[in-house]
Amino acid sequence: MISENIVTLRKKYNFSQEEVAEKIGVTRQTIAKWENGESVPDVIHSNALAELFDITLDTLVNYENGKDGIDEVPPKGKYIFGTVTIGDKGQIVIPVKARRIFDIKPGDSLVVLGDEERGLALMGTDFFIEGFGKIQESEGKKK
Q: Which of the two residues, 124 and 46, has the higher pLDDT score?
């Protein structure tokens, strides 16, 4: 996984092996070995790679290319959790990983936003109210 991710990310950013090596302080041969799966980067170099490619360390190490039909490593803070099924009454089950990352617990409220061209989005109620308040404040200042 990590070897494939390094190759994918390097190509995505149009870096040569030499450029990646220079940016994180290793040799080109080291990058080649990581990409070929002959060895793996240590934690310090893995972190440097994650920072270089603006992804999380977990994504660098664990992301499975092509899983869920996705062929590109997602950027830091962006997730694709897979699909959900709509129940008979319109209910959905939010995947466990999403609930953990966004600290969603039973009884929490979410705002459902919709755009006929782009689809639906869920947002924490507190975040939505805070953002709406800031919009109102800025509108009040314009008058």
A: 46
